[in-house]
Amino acid sequence: KAGVTQTPRYLIKTRGQQVTLSCSPISGHRSVSWYQQTPGQGLQFLFEYFSETQRNKGNFPGRFSGRQFSNSRSEMNVSTLELGDSALYLCASSLTNTAEQFFGPGTRLTVL
Amino acid sequence: GQQVMQIPQYQHVQEGEDFTTYCNSSTTLSNIQWYKQRPGGHPVFLIQLVKSGEVKKQKRLTFQFGEAKKNSSLHITATQTTDVGTYFCAGPSAGGTSYGKLTFGQGTILTVHP
What we know:
Chain A has 112 residues and is mostly beta strands. Chain A has strands at 5-7, 10-13, 19-24, 31-38, 42-50, 53-57, 64-68, 74-78, 87-94, 102-103, 107-111. In chain A, strands 2, 4, 5, 6, 9, 10 and 11 form a 7-stranded mixed beta sheet that branches. In chain A, strands 1-3-8-7 form a 4-stranded antiparallel beta sheet, with no helix packed on it. With 114 residues, chain B is mainly beta.
């Protein structure tokens, strides 16, 4: 099976812009979670989607949003980018109610 | 809120030495997971522990879950250069309704000198 794919892999934006990141889970996986990874804060949970519904949400401002499509693909959007949004954004998929999270390679976002 | 602490933050060892990283949660966990992230890579699932006092082995790696289900450890025997990376523990977040919401420890960065 193909692994989790994320596009784009690298992105450079300027403050105030918005960005959309895409994640394609492993075939058959219906749960998709998003995490932000930074050197200072580590891995922090953003949100989880299951069957097109947001099932869990982390402590991030409303500028961070996401959605999931009927084919389980997910997107996350960050509006009004700030310098502090520079991070590696990781998507993980899993089978329903199983523990193992399969992470994608991530999207490296740099905000200038 | 729930916190998962990991120590040490860094560990430098000579190849062949043992390595241990410790994980402590502020709340009781239903399970704990361990992940490894190679430099420049993404986290890769290693194992899940569910039972109080559980011990699991994967070749040179030994994982333990504390009796109170609030702490865990990962021990690597006779490290190799391929063990280099960051090791994370993670537990289901308090109030989370599924496994998809994990609270990660800060990770232990392991460097192995040949």
